[in-house]
Amino acid sequence: MGKTNMSEWANFRGGIVLSGQGGTAINPFGPDRPLYGSSVGSGIAVAMDFAPLTVGTETNGSITSPSTGYHIWGLKLTRGLVDGAGIIPGVASLDTPGPMGSNPSDLALMLNGMRGSGTSGPANPPTDYTSKMNGDLTGVRIGVDTTDASPAFVSLLSAAATGSGATLVTYNKAAYDQAVYAAVRGLDTAEISELVKLYNGLAPSTGVTQTQIDAFLKILVTDMLNQWYTAFPLSTAIGNAYGLISAYELRKYIDENLGAREANPQDYDSALVRLLGTTFRPLSGDGAKFARDLPDVVAFNAANPEIERVGFGFDTFVSVARLSLDDLVRSSGFDSAAALEAAAVNWKGIIGKILHEVRAGLGVDVSFDTRFDENAMAFANSPQLVVPVGPGRGSTGQIMNADPFGEEAMLRVGYALNEKLNDPAFASLRAISPSIPETGFTNQPADRGPLLPLVLHDLDDHGRATLAHLLTTEMAPSCSTPPASSPSPPSTDASPAMAA
User: Fold this and answer.
1) 66: closest CA among 473, 463, 415, 399?
2) Cβ partners under 8 Å of residue 431, min gap 6
């Protein structure tokens, strides 16, 4: 088992290229290609055949993005289906783990193991997610938006549905838009009022008039950006809600987790220190002092600019750390943290209701469409399955979504699609795999896995490049026959951990 690199703090520090602990990963299709995260290493490890299965974690896109970018299968799970203990929270109420692998059958097997500790789920949860992965799709209604999906992909879906008992439902953007408008109009007055306040940036205590509701329902349909998006004002409302929730939960849960952590000076004597040497500076020059809250993290980053640089975006940590948790709550317009948390639950319930009604209106159980972004999927607690299809080195794949706890249906459809992709008739839709470079290590297993036996010192240029593909945060197993250019590796007391 191995521990893989990821985007530091799940992209909240300015983008997926940043990892002060693990270094910057390399896209397996070449250094000229962009990185996809934040579960960067989990995706690369599967794509490079370092491991058949890994675990990713997602708030909004951190499993689906690397899965599409590295041409692998990835399953973002319904929150609560498996235990989230051990996940460092980004936005704790939205975070969820999920398996990533080279085929849907492996994902189902891994989900069987992960499912044992779930905290919630359907009344009769599946005990074996592999039991129905046999090509029989009786009763499953598969939807696809033909405005964006290629004719070849629609043909693949049709072939998988034919003779399997599934029903293929096709619709275009106009039909999808109408289903969304109908779902929003079906909300009660209090629910629509919440969307009005979020869209307009109004204070939570603001009373909403019928005139304002009518204006929102009108702009929902007439917004000029709707020609490219669906109900753009709704996406704006969801984005504003996400901004409020993420700032609050970042500060709350990072402070709580760091505050409960027992300082262990030996942590600094880790592979990180052995790799970075004297460039690593602990807080206040005291190796025994650890970050206890988010401002401490920001201070550490400022003291270590060489390894804790900001990525290509905005460092959310800096802005969030400027205010105390109470001040963050007040700046959001709420008089208490409890009130903000209750509003967040309500918002997520409203978005979940909308997406459920959209699927019901279209008459589908699972669907391939891109009309709502990852924020909406996270708010609605919708599971998603990435199906790697399409040629080329760039981001590819189709993302299936469903109502909460729809994993079994999605995996069944995924299995049928994977079987059809082996048909020569659909060879053009098979996602290409990266060319895996030779490592230069004489004792490397023929299957290049499960973990490259790399050492963290005296690597030649090729070794460093290989290490960047899957840089472990602790010592990898020692090489029994190290490369000629490297001295014998030191002994290691590090224990491999689960890829995540």
Assistant:
1) 399
2) 71, 388, 389, 390, 391, 396, 397
Tracing tokens 């109004």 back to the chain, one arrives at: 202
Give the residue among 453, 478, 480 at the shortest CA–CA distance from 467: 453
**283: helix, coil or strand?**
helix
Q: Which two tokens stand for residue 190?
A: 């209090």
pTM of the model: 0.84
Residue 357 neighbours by CB distance under 10 Å: 18
Spatial CB neighbours of 210, under 8 Å, sequence gap ≥ 6: none
Distance CA 124, CA 34 (A): 42
Joined together, the tokens standing for residue 229 give 């998006």
Q: What is the pLDDT of residues 254-286, one digit of tens each?
A: 888 877 765 555 554 444 444 444 444 555 555
CA torsion, ordered 152, 158, 160, 162, to nearest 10 deg: -150
Q: How far apart are CA 8 and CA 19, in angstroms?
A: 5
Quote the radius of gyration of the chain (alpha carbons, Å).
24
Residues 6+ apart with CB under 8 A from 466: 437, 439, 440, 452, 454
143 in helix, strand or coil? strand
Task: Give residue-wise pLDDT tens across range 400-448.
Answer: 999 999 999 999 999 999 999 999 999 999 998 887 655 454 444 444 4
* Contact call for residues 151 and 322 (beta carbons, < 8 A): no
Query: Which sign, positive or negative, has the C-alpha torsion 117, 119, 122, 124?
Result: positive
294-318 tens-digit pLDDT: 888 888 788 777 777 666 666 888 8
Distance CA 431, CA 26 (A): 19
**Half-sphere exposure at residue 195, Cβ-oriented, CA atoms within 13 angstroms:** 29
DSSP 430-497: BPP-PPPPP---TT--TT--S-----SSS--HHHHHHHHHS--SSPPPPPSS--TTSPPPPP--PPP-
Give bridge partners of residue 430 from the DSSP assignment.
389
